[in-house]
Recover the amino acids of this structure.
């Protein structure tokens, strides 16, 4: 029994010694220095200085410079249509002809009436001359002479009225020849040849739109009004017309009118820009995007917009120091356009900022720059 106990004790001591031999020291584990974190791979860009245009964006509608709905000014049958739908017409071109026979007859009637009254006036003038001689010879009384004189004045007024009637009849006759008051493009014909038309018709015959030049009416927020007015006083502001996708430039023009009131419903101000439209890239009724070039900032500090981050304290960027570490830097951002942003405060020319990989960074993070 004693021998067995001795064997068990010896075995326990051997096992304990083996455990202590193969187990790493506890103190060594605790005091082992932790390895430093691996550098964070980032993409950087350099702060540059360049001229940056400042644009104001708005939505506009294309309108013709002049639009005239051609309507008949007299009643009658539409004898002839002389224009083709969609063609360009010039000022004074004949567009339509109304049956002129009733108006020509009316003109002949007033012409005949004037000839009749003119003959009576000529006769009255001869009688007045004879009455003047008789009055001088005291053969005719003053009363008879005055009567002859008043007859001449009456007939003179009647001839003048006849002349006015002739001019009116000539005008009515001329209205049967319908001409274009402006140069432009004819639209869809609104009435067919052979129809009876009236001066009171509201539909008209055709709409003529002047498209060269053409105008665009667009709006901007009222907060931009003061800056726009200040720059417009220096020189007409340039406006670029873009398609609805905001990618293709259609035309370039200039601001010609700033409206005299703000729309209180929308808080916007209306502006009108004029475009030469030599290639007819703008069409009446078209919706477009407008970019107004307010001014150009010379040598402004810019960074890619992807470098900007937002936090509780506002905008910031990560700047790479000489030690290749990330430094969080608060910045004041100005205008942003075409993927770049103007930095008004917080950065210096030539500094490097992180444009990709920021989500892994914190203040003082070691970085490795990827090409």
């Amino acid at each position: 029994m004693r021998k067995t106990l001795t064997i068990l004790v010896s075995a326990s001591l051997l096992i304990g010694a083996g455990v202590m031999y193969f187990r790493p020291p506890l103190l060594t584990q605790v005091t082992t220095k932790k390895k430093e974190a691996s550098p964070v791979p980032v993409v950087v860009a350099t702060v540059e200085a360049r001229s940056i245009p400042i644009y104001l964006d708005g939505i506009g509608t294309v309108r013709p410079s002049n639009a005239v709905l051609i309507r008949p000014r007299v009643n009658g049958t539409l004898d002839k249509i002389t224009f083709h739908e969609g063609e360009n017409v010039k000022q004074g071109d004949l567009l339509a002809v109304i049956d002129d026979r009733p108006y020509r007859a009316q003109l002949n009637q007033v012409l005949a009436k004037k000839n009749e009254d003119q003959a009576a006036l000529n006769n009255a003038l001869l009688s007045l001359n004879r009455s003047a001689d008789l009055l001088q010879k005291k053969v005719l009384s003053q009363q008879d002479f005055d009567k002859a004189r008043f007859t001449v004045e009456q007939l003179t007024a009647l001839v003048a009225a006849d002349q006015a009637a002739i001019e009116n009849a000539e005008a009515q006759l001329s209205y049967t020849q319908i001409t274009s008051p402006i140069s432009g493009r004819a639209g869809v014909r609104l009435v067919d040849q052979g129809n009876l038309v009236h001066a009171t018709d509201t539909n008209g015959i055709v709409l003529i739109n002047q498209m060269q030049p053409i105008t665009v009416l667009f709006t901007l927020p009222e907060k931009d009004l003061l800056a726009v007015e200040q720059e417009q006083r220096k020189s007409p502001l340039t406006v670029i017309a873009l398609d609805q996708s905001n990618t293709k430039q259609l035309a370039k023009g200039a601001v010609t009118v700033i409206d005299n009131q703000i729309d209180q419903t929308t808080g916007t101000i209306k502006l009108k820009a004029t475009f030469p439209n030599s290639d007819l890239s703008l069409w009446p009724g078209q919706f477009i995007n407008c970019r107004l070039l307010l001014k150009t900032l010379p040598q402004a500090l810019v960074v890619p917009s992807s470098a900007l981050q937002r936090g509780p304290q506002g905008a910031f960027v990560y700047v790479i120091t000489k030690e290749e570490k990330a430094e969080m830097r608060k910045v004041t951002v100005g205008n942003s356009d075409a993927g770049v942003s103007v930095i008004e405060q917080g950065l210096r020319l030539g500094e490097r900022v992180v444009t990709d990989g920021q989500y892994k960074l914190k203040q003082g993070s070691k970085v490795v720059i990827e090409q």
